[in-house]
């Protein structure tokens, strides 16, 4: 459990592997556990084909679930010389059931532009257990974050004249919301986000008319229409209308939480 807590604090995705039942002879008893990341193993459930099969499947789950939620899985393995085995045979004679439970890390969210709406969205998201990067070219806007309640989130503020410098540092699967005070900067950030190709949500604040202009410009920059249409504009829940900054922020936050569920 100490390892699991440390990996979560370090934002390293992992899978907890547990021997939940044992029939007959097996290398370890029911309840034995190990943790698997994409690079390391911690602990053991008995070695051999049993362990390697579980580790391989755990790493497949981590790869498949990059940036999204993964469901637990069960594996049942027979430990005899007639059972299929990719990693060498084990002839203990028993049968084991293994539970693989993903240990997700906190989501990563970035807000570009801490104006009225960006500040309200920061106010809401700062109360959640996630990594929250906020970026603006105006230091006085970033200073407004000091007025917020002590955050639950890991909030990192960035004074950046060029927001792309921050965008390139975000982890794969990060959810990005673009709402700066400059439409030219918004367009530049949309272009940079699409060129990454590995982000989660890309949300752009604005009207349908703004989006049509941006869409045409992004396609002219060489992006395919299919890629451009992964950007969400307008942002938020369509069924929650309203133009007040707090209303828009609540709508955007609710839509994000639905995606993270």
TrEMBL record:
Domain XdhC Rossmann: 109-256
Ranges of residues in domain XdhC- CoxI: 8-65
InterPro entries linked to this entry: MoCofactor_Util/Proc, NAD(P)-bd_dom_sf, Xanthine_DH_XdhC, XdhC_CoxI, XdhC_Rossmann_dom
UniProt protein name: Xanthine dehydrogenase accessory protein XdhC
This protein's encoding gene: xdhC
